[in-house]
Write a structure and sequence with these properties.
The complex is a heterodimer of chains A (729) and B (379). Chain A has 729 residues and is an alpha+beta fold. The longest helix of chain B has 36 residues, at 150-185. Chain B is flat. The chains are: A alpha+beta (729), B mainly alpha (379).
């Protein structure tokens, strides 16, 4: 009897699965407009233009100014666009940036590694020096003094052939025969192994650096593959594989960049460290060809098509070839501005004069790749670490999921004198571990550094506030603990889902009716409704649970991160691009001296948020409600508008989140009803946040820059930009 | 003449031996169990493959990326998708869906032990020219999340799980058996009472809480055991880091063994042969350790192979807390991902099923060794 039952059950499943694998069930229909668009009576494309159109037009003004002598004009136009993006079109609500101080204990010598707020250099472990004991305040101050006074200017004069040298004039000293590293008059005993912890154990780490856009992948391969240039410890662009360059503006307005490459950079197989030839100019051309070929669906192709001459055309031609069923690889590449003149001379031609071109070369699509090796491994190329070639400081020699990653120094690296560690061990810390886990691991000697978490009461007292409670994150009480200023990085933003396609709830009482869904979508189309969110969210209060005492410094109310790029103003002063955005803000809002950058704002205005203003929010919400009812779009009974927000999974921080949103609800006077939807697991969180976009409003995504120009941020939010997927487009 | 006769005799003897083996009930029992296990395994593969095929195709590629590509070209997008589905084994190289019966059949052929070649890398996704292949006997697939063959993944992570298991079994029996005996010596006596309190309290502690508390108590560098430097995470260069996890498993595992040792001992103590031995004047210790213990252990030893082989399946919480690179995390990790690691899930299911089948068979055989009275019947 049992046997028959089993077989019957099996038969039923088989039958079901045979039916279910038919093509109709599993395909995503591309021809039909999303349900919500049909109900709103507007096509997806038109809605995108309606929301992002004004901003895109202003962005285009700035993007059209390319002449390198008109940088100031470009930045001012971009600043106008950025103001529109946040304060007029109200598309995003920026709230956090890595711009403040963190209290951290570390055994690494400060100010030695490459510094950059864009590209991949900041994640490199080259130039990192580890010692046997925690860096004390005195030692740190001594090194900082040497760092501040020791900066040498990069050469700007060309040699007889017109080339400008990229040699690193600020190179770090080498370790002496006694194993000591001396900087700023302080001598450190060096250690050969660096242990760090990592928390996100993403199973599918991919090493295809020519298509990747995720930082958890680039953090690994940036240590394995060197590009043309990188950044030194002052943020200057210095040569990696390139030794010198020449930029010539052509008659047609394009600019030809010629790079001379070093001849001693070797390819090495990651698996065994055996040599695989020398890195040649053709390897860079091969990468660009790969990235631009639509066949490879590279996530970074848009960076290259925006820069190089003929790139857009080639990309379109390969696409057309695929559409026509022809071989995309056979499309003529000769029109693209990427040529190997000889083995060690590379010529790249940009569409127009591009002053930030060198900085964009630090990013993934410009890393070299060997065509011969690619052909050898075929479809496996980049699938795992052992199917790429390495020319950088480290090889990834061990990968044990859920435990550790080991990187071993590449002894055939051309600049191995500046790789001070033989082994880099990244130890896994489970995401569910407590806020004190990192500290305890440091105390047990298992890792060499940690950042003190405000949620770790014991550690916070020992390291930051001290027994008498006087210490702060900027100036911690413990002599081994230092306030470290993060430089640049990502800006986190709040954003709306204009075309929501998934409505999943773990709490059925939150479920919205069809009318409610349409009402939310209609309300989100109203600018004043969105401005209500912008002014009504007390994000400073929310931040105070992450960075108590220095939350104002972490606050960030414009999109482009600080210290990304500078331009000389008419008064002759070099100003951060962010200051131009501040100028626009002050002019339009009728304020003086307000800075949208938290760290600057904190200096003058203390612990305050320049934007949050509940009374403004009330006004905007009531304007929105009036307009929506007057136009006949919504009825009185449609209010309050239910807005679904993905809640923080951690219960301790959710209290702050709830407070922030309840303040918003109060300010809205019954216009908004925030529904916090709690994901059940990390995976559901990821699914809701970045795959099925199951939210009306979310604050959990950010953008990090790829090169030193505001365009890297501003380009993401234009029609068809890199981040608009998050907005539902 | 003589020599040939002798040779014939030898051959006949060998034949007879084989014949006798087939008459041997134990041998027949093993053959039958192995065959029925294989049949169950095949059914299981079919079931799991069919279940996995029930997942929608959208689980196997990133819909957002698909839509993004479709924004520029639908042909391109469909091409990209069929490539993803091909890599997931749900479509052929031309993008046509593969029938589920074909999937099942292919998997069964892959795990049957004969020499085969499985292509892994091609010059391009038209998959005409093969560049790299897997060769061997049992092919369990390629784990995408671990970037390695399933067999290699399990083999590389099995060692540490086995080591922990070995120590755990040794220490558990070392402490639990004497405790059980001591308790059985005088049921209701002081030792028995203390033992019972210990067992009840031990059972009352939730395992996960105990692990987390001990993780901190034993590992904290500023805590009571800071001097021992056990550490908070496993480090293969420092065997001492294994002390906290092993201690926890042994501690929580003791009652499970002690309680049964005590129970079987008490059962045996009231049997006739013990009374006979007592009346013959044998010392209590002699009765306890040579006669009673041996009989009481018979039902217990049956579980030893299962416990030992079960180590391959690993312990999820222990490995998670002490970040031990064992096999315990594998299945959860494979299932958790946004795109599930199908090959790993299927491979692990097959291996785990095979292990439990083998361990029950071994358990039966080990029981015969301990107790000659037990006979295995093939019917």
């Amino acid at each position: 009897m049992k046997k028959t039952l089993k077989l019957l059950g099996l038969g039923a499943i088989l039958a079901a699965s045979v039916v279910s694998c038919g093509p109709t069930n599993s395909e995503v229909d591309l021809t039909e407009e999303p349900e919500i668009c049909q109900k709103l009576g507007i096509s997806q494309k038109d809605l995108e233009k309606e929301i992002l159109g004004d901003y895109t037009a202003k962005y285009n003004v700035g993007a059209a100014i390319v002449d390198s002598t008109r940088t100031l004009e470009r930045y001012k136009a971009f600043a106008e666009a950025e103001y529109d993006l946040i304060y007029e079109s109200a598309i995003i609500v920026p709230w956090l940036s890595q711009s403040g101080y963190s209290a951290a204990v570390s055994k690494t010598v400060p100010y030695q590694a490459g510094k950059a707020s864009y590209g991949l250099t900041a994640d490199k472990y080259k130039n990192v020096v580890v010692t046997n004991e925690a860096m004390t305040k005195e030692k740190r101050a001594a090194v900082k003094a040497a760092y501040d006074s020791g900066a040498q200017a990069m050469p700007i004069t060309a040699d007889s052939e017109g080339f400008i040298s990229l040699a690193n004039v600020n190179a770090n000293p080498v370790v002496g025969a006694d194993g000591k590293y001396t900087v700023g008059g302080v001598s450190f005993d060096t250690k050969k192994t660096l242990n760090v912890s990592y928390a996100s154990d993403v199973g599918k780490a991919k090493y295809n650096y020519l298509t990747n856009t995720w930082t958890y992948n680039s953090q690994k391969y940036t240590n394995m593959v060197d590009g043309l240039v990188e950044n030194d410890k002052y943020g200057n662009i210095v040569g990696a594989i390139a030794t010198k360059y020449k930029a010539v503006t052509n008659a047609d307005g394009s600019q030809t960049w010629t790079f001379k490459l070093r001849n001693d950079a070797k390819w090495v197989k990651n698996s065994d460290g055996s040599e695989y030839g020398v890195v040649k100019a053709g390897d860079f051309v091969n990468s660009i060809k790969y990235v631009l070929n639509a066949l490879n669906a590279s996530g970074t192709a848009s960076i290259v098509t925006g820069l190089l001459k003929g790139a857009e055309e080639y990309n379109a031609a390969t696409l057309a070839a695929i559409e026509a069923g022809q071989d995309a690889n056979a499309v003529d590449f000769s029109g693209v501005g990427a040529k190997a003149v000889d083995d060690f001379t590379l010529e790249l031609t940009t569409k127009v004069e591009t002053p930030y071109f060198l900085s964009s070369l630090t990013y993934s699509p410009f890393l070299p790749s060997s065509a011969q090796y690619m052909a050898e491994v075929g479809t496996k190329w980049g699938e795992d670490e052992n199917h790429i070639l390495v020319n950088g400081a480290f090889r990834q020699t061990e990968t044990t999921l859920g435990s550790k990653l080991v990187f071993t120094k590449n002894d055939k690296y051309y600049d191995k004198d500046h790789v001070y560690i033989d082994t880099l061990v990244q130890k896994f810390i489970d995401g569910t571990a407590g806020p004190d886990t990192n500290r305890k691991r440091y105390e047990a000697g298992e890792v060499d550094s940690f950042t003190v978490s405000a949620k770790d009461k014991e550690g916070w007292k020992t390291y930051v506030t001290g027994e008498d409670g006087t210490g702060t994150q900027r100036d911690p009480a413990n002599p081994n603990c230092n306030g470290i200023l993060s430089s640049g990085g990502s800006t986190y933003i709040g954003y709306y889902n204009f075309i929501r396609q998934n409505w999943k709830y773990n709490d059925n009482s939150l479920r919205k009716t069809d009318e409610e869904r349409v009402a939310t979508a209609q309300a989100l189309r109203n600018k004043n409704f969105r401005k209500g969110f912008l002014y009504g969210l007390d994000v400073l209060h929310y931040l105070s649970q992450y960075k108590p005492g220095s939350e104002a410094e972490w606050l960030y109310r414009s999109y482009t991160n600080r210290e990304l790029t500078y331009a000389t103003d008419t008064d002759g002063k070099s100003k951060d691009y962010g200051e131009y955005v501040d100028e626009v803000y002050n002019r339009k809002q009728g304020t003086t001296g307000v800075s949208l950058s938290g760290i600057k704002n904190a200096e003058t205005a203390g612990n305050s948020d320049p934007v949050f203003d509940a009374s403004k929010a009330t006004k905007y919400f009531s304007d929105a409600k009036k307009a929506l009812i007057d136009s006949g779009t919504l009825k009185e009974s449609d209010f309050p508008i239910k807005v679904d927000v993905i809640a923080d999974m951690e219960a301790t921080t959710r209290a702050y989140e709830e407070e922030m949103y309840s303040k918003l609800e109060t300010a809205s006077n019954g216009v908004v009803d925030i529904q916090l939807n709690v994901p059940a697991s990390d995976d559901e969180n990821q699914d809701w946040g970045s795959i099925s976009n199951n939210y009306d409003f979310s604050m959990w995504s950010g953008w990090g820059p790829d090169y030193a120009d505001p365009q890297t941020f501003l380009h993401t939010m234009i029609v068809g930009g890199d981040m608009v997927e998050q907005l539902g487009f | 003449m003589d020599t040939t006769l002798k040779q014939e005799n030898k051959f006949l003897v060998a034949l007879k031996k084989v014949g006798r083996a087939f008459k041997n009930q134990t041998f027949l029992y093993i053959v039958k169990r192995v065959l029925s296990s294989l049949f169950t395994l095949v059914l299981l593969v079919a079931l799991v493959t069919a279940l996995i095929r029930l997942l929608p195709d959208t689980k196997f590629y990133d819909v957002a990326t698909y839509k993004k590509i479709a924004g520029t070209s639908k042909v391109m997008a469909n091409r990209w998708r069929s490539m993803q589905l091909f890599l997931a084994g749900r479509a052929d190289a031309n993008g046509n869906p593969v029938p589920v019966l074909y999937s099942i059949g292919r998997y069964i052929l892959n795990i049957l032990p004969y020499y085969k070649t499985i292509p892994q890398s091609w010059t391009d996704y038209s998959c005409t020219t093969v560049l790299e292949s897997w060769t061997g006997f049992v092919y369990l697939g390629y784990s995408k999340s671990m970037s390695s063959y399933v067999t290699n993944v399990i083999a590389s992570r099995m060692g540490i799980s086995f080591r922990i298991s070995l120590y755990t079994i040794i220490f558990s029996y070392l402490f639990a058996v004497p405790l059980g005996i001591a308790m059985a010596k005088k049921p209701g006596g002081t030792v028995d009472k203390i033992g019972n309190v210990f067992i009840v309290l031990n059972y009352a502690i939730p395992g996960l809480v105990f692990y987390l508390v001990m993780w901190d108590v034993l590992g904290n560098a500023n805590g009571a055991f800071g001097w021992a430097n056990f550490g908070l995470a496993y480090d293969e260069t420092r065997p001492l880091t294994l002390v906290p996890p092993i201690f926890c498993i042994v501690f929580l595992g003791i009652p499970g063994i002690s309680i049964w040792v005590r129970r079987f001992m008490i059962d045996e103590l009231s049997s006739d042969y013990v009374k006979f031995a007592r009346s013959k004047g044998l010392s209590e210790n002699r009765i306890m350790y040579t006669h009673v213990l041996r009989n009481a252990m018979v039902p217990l030893v049956r579980n030893i192979p299962a416990t030992f082989l079960g180590a391959i399946i690993g312990s999820y919480y222990v490995e998670k807390i002490w970040t031990i690179p064992g096999t315990g995390l594998l299945l959860v990790k494979a299932l958790q991902g946004v795109t599930p690691d199908i090959d790993l899930i299927e491979g692990l299911t097959v291996i785990y099923a095979a292990i439990s089948m083998v361990s029950f068979l071994l358990g039966d055989l080990i029981t015969i060794l301990f107790d000659p009275r037990i006979k295995l019947e093939s019917n």
